[in-house]
Structures are given as C-alpha cells and as structure tokens.
Amino acid sequence: MSDTIVDETQRLDISAEGVDFGDKSDTESLAETLTSFELMPNAIKRRDYALKRLHHQKIQIDAKFVREFLELQKSYEPEYEPLFERRRQIVTGDYEPLDSDLPNGQAIDAVPIESAGIPGFWLKVLLSSAFDRHVEEYDEPILQHLIDIKVAVNPEKTMYSFGFHFSANDYFANDVLMKDMYFATNLEDIDLLYPIKCESTEILWKPGKDVTVDCFDQGSDGQVKTICHNMSFFRLFWSTTADEITDIETQHLMYEWDIIRDMINTFVPNAVLFYTRELCLTSDDMNSTDGEEEEEVDEEEDDDNEDEEEGEDCEEGVKEPVEVVHRLD
To answer: Fewest CB within 10 A of the end CB: N or C in the chain?
Structure first.
C-alpha cells in the first residue's frame, strides 16, 4: 500500500516543475500547482512549518496513547478471562449450561445428544473471519480439534501472543500452537504499531500428516526428490530470521498483522457471533457487492496464480527440515 502511495506522489510531482501561484494556463491543474513544496511561496512554507510543529506535538501524544492503550488492554485481561474460560468449557463440553446461564426468555428444553459441547466451533469462527481464504479443505479436519484461541498483550515487550489450543489428534503432538508478534511504534504513520518480528511454535507433525508440504518422487533409496509447499492455515506458524528480517518477511508480517488485528479486536472476543454468522469478515462477504461474473473471473485468476505459485514453490532435492519463508499468501 505504501509503495502505491509513493508511486502516485511521484507521478504527480513530475509535472509540477515550472508552476507558480499566478494565473495558470489551461493545461495546468490545481493538483500540479499544489504538489511541489519547493515551489510554494515562503509565506505558505512558513505556515506549513507551523503545522509540522503541531504534528510533532501530536506524535508525542500518540506515543503516550500507544503505551497506555497496551497497558489498559492488559489491565482488563483478568476481567475477561473468567468469561472466556466458561466459553471454552461450554465449547469443549466440560460444562453444560444451566437455565440460569441462558438469557432471559431463552430457556430451551434440549433433548440429550451424544456429542458434547459444540463440535467445530472454532473452525466455523475461522471460516467466518478474514482467515477464511487461508483455511484449505485439508486443514478443516485438523481445525475440528481447535478448542480455544487465547490472545494476550505484553506492554513491556510491545508484543501480542496468540495461543491456538487443540485437543489430542492424529496430526501433530502439540496441544498449543503459539505465535508471538513483536511491534515497534511508527508514529509517523497512520498505523501506530507495526510488526518487526514473530516467533512461532514448531509444529511436531506426526509421520505423513504435515499438510503444509507434499512429497513426491520418493526413490528406491527412500529419499524424497521433490518437496512442494502447500497453501495452508498452518503456514501461519513461522518465525522471522534471527539476525535481520528480510524484505519478504516484512511483507508477510504486515499482511498477517492486517488479519490478526481482526482476531484481537473482533472475532476472538466476539466468537459466538461469528459462529452464528451474525458477524462475518470473510473475503466473500466483504466483496458481496461485486457481480457474479466479476467473481468468476477473479476465481479463475486466483486459480492460475495458485498454480504458478505452487510451481514456484516446488524445490528439487532433499530438504530436511522443510524451511518455508512464504507463509500466508
């Protein structure tokens, strides 16, 4: 997004040379007149500098706001925790709601059923959120075992932690997958926080169950000749390089932050409304105003792009462990 803004600014500035604040010819536009600060009269520059001083004073307030905002979030976690723990108990079947737990006038005489809790609760929540486009069909059986998502903030480290809790399953040995995102304050930007690194749990996949990769061409010696990286929700769990973050890692951090921000503010605290789809943030719903024909064209282009990306992701030779830098696309 920032590259687009820079490009647009450069495009406008190119045509500003030679423009003054007098009478303009028919070929000169107001935009061309106003874009180049260097060509402005000193009286205008003087006023602009005064505005800049006000802006820097605002930045000092922004810094205080970010610090106190994170501390305020942290201070409310103990109040939310009992509610979210009871939610977990109901979802997993550890607690069966009483009539007193229901809203007034909503008491229901329920016929007992075999299944406990609410099977697939968090899978449905994810499919109603901005994560929906990253949940593949082969991810869904695993996400059926997702029993809770916890979010915590650490103001001292300027960090958010996300815990994805799973019941015992046939896919990996972990019971919790963690992702920690660390931030710096970017007071010159509209978004005051921007991610600078992330650390994630290594997924302990059981043999043959890793949905993030496909292995082909296994020779008689048992060595894998080709490994292809699959699109998968579980590519979310990656870590930035220890020494210096790369440009591609920065791009993926920024992309993931746009989605994870919704997780912090919206669909984790309001999960039940996403389960019932009273709230929805899916890409399909956000683009529901587009015509059907336009959607079909987009889907065809996405399929072509995915085919190309899968081809690019395929690497020849044995690679153990598989290192995936390109996570959520």
So the answer is: N
Contact, 122 vs 163, CB < 8 A? no
- For residue 162 the two structure tokens come to 């996300």
Q: How many residues does the chain have?
A: 329
Residue 146: what are its φ and ψ, rounded to 5°?
-75, 120
Between vectors from CA 169 to CA 225 and to CA 177, what angle results, nearest 5°?
Answer: 80
Question: Phi, psi at residue 250, to the nearest 5°?
Answer: -60, -45
Q: Tokens standing for 130? A: 């901005």
Largest Cα–Cα distance of the chain, in whole Å?
83
- Residues 18-34 as b/e (b if ≥16 CB within 10 A, e otherwise) read ebeeeeeeeeeeeebbe
Boundaries of every domain in the chain: 58-100+116-316
Q: What is the homologous superfamily of the domain 58-100+116-316 according to CATH?
A: Nucleosome assembly protein (3.30.1120.90)
Is the CB of residue 132 less than 8 Å from the CB of residue 111?
A: no
The predicted-structure confidence for 144-184, as pLDDT tens digits, reads as follows 999 999 999 999 999 999 999 999 999 999 999 999 999 98
* Cβ atoms of 221 and 310 closer than 8 Å: no
Q: Please, are residues 282 and 130 in contact by the beta-carbon 8 Å criterion?
A: yes
What's the rounded Cα separation, in Å, for the pair 11 and 6?
9
Which DSSP helix (H) or strand (E) runs through 164? strand 159-166
State the Cα–Cα distance between residues 50 and 146, nearest whole angstrom: 54
Residues with Cβ within 8 Å of 303's Cβ and at least 6 positions away in sequence, in order, are: none
Regions in the chain scoring below 50 on pLDDT: 1-22, 24, 26-27, 286, 288-294, 296-297, 308-326
Instruction: From 163, 173, 170, 146, select the one nearest 92 (Cα to Cα).
Output: 146
d(CA 136, CA 178): 20
